[in-house]
Amino acid sequence: MRTEGLSINLATVREQFNLREAVEACARLGISAIDPWRDQVQKQGIDESAKIIKAHGMRVTGLCRGGFFTAADDKGRQTAIDDNKRALDEAAAIGAECLVLVVGGLPQGSRDIAEARDMVASGIDACRAHAKAVGVPLAIEPLHPMYAADRACVNTLGHALDMCEQLGPDVGVVIDVYHLWWDPNFEDDIARAGRGKRILAHHICDWLVPTRDMLLDRGMMGDGVIDLKRVRRAIEAAGYDGPQEVEILSSAWWAKPGDEVIKTCIERYNTVC
Ligand code: ZN
């Protein structure tokens, strides 16, 4: 079965494998692209992770994740900016093609989402020079609006693109079907993202009906209601030909053997994506 053009976001097997085991499993099953999470890289050690990834010839379609720029005071916001600069260094060390940003929700005690969005824009702006210096672009990942309060106050692709345009040419977006499939402007905004050369990654999974948990019940491709082929066609028509990256945060899939999960990703990639 085809594995070219498929990347595995290592959160998908985070309960089964550490970074080394995950990379080895991917390599064993013919996968040549991954996107690790920062805690996985840190646990393995940054230099060691870089070595493991290189030794297996893995393309790194991103590092998850930076962001969380919103905070109640200046000190908190500066801490976030400093941490994002370290995340950029880590991304550069492992050869990641972008740093995925989950931008942050409302600061503690706040009801001002417009202010939170301004904090996000200025936080990203403060990291742009560092991103350029280390050669890792910043990728805003708009999240489903159910996460607006606690994870990300950028919730549509259109809003993320507005922010990119405000910031400059060196900031892009991650298009994750789980967060964006419902938006009536989704396909128009994919085309707009293509025109602006903003598409840095394409995450896939599926939306289950019913979804039983806001965070840990993402579906395997084909088990839900997202028209993945249609989205991919729109993304390719917009000029993006990078991998489709499977990112499934799911207590159900975490309970299965890691190899079985990756094999299922490959099978569904070949049949429904
Ligand atoms: Zn994602």
Protein model, in words:
With 273 residues, the chain is an alpha/beta fold. 45% of the residues lie in helices and 13% in strands. It has one domain (6-271): Divalent-metal-dependent TIM barrel enzymes (TIM Barrel). The protein is built from eleven helices and nine strands. It has a nine-stranded parallel beta sheet with strand order 3-2-1-9-8-7-6-5-4. Helix 2 packs across helix 3 (46-55) and helix 4 (74-93) runs parallel beside helix 5. The model has no long low-confidence stretch (mean pLDDT 98). Bound molecules: zinc ion.
Binned, the helix content reads 40-55%
Poorly predicted regions are none
Distance between the amino and carboxyl termini: 13 Å
Strand arrangement, major sheet: 3-2-1-9-8-7-6-5-4
Number of strands: 9
- Total number of distinct structural domains: 1
Beta content comes to 5-15%
**What is the top-level CATH class?**
Alpha Beta
Give the mean pLDDT: 98
Give me the CATH architecture, please. Answer: Alpha-Beta Barrel
The CATH topology is given as TIM Barrel
Bound chemical compounds:
zinc ion
The number of helices is 11
Instruction: Please compute the radius of gyration using only Cα atoms.
Output: 17 Å
The backbone outline, from C-alpha atoms, is globular
Structural class: alpha/beta
Task: Return the string of H and E elements.
Answer: EHEHHEEHEHEHEHHEHEHH
The major sheet is characterized as: 9 strands, parallel
| CATH homologous superfamily caption | Divalent-metal-dependent TIM barrel enzymes
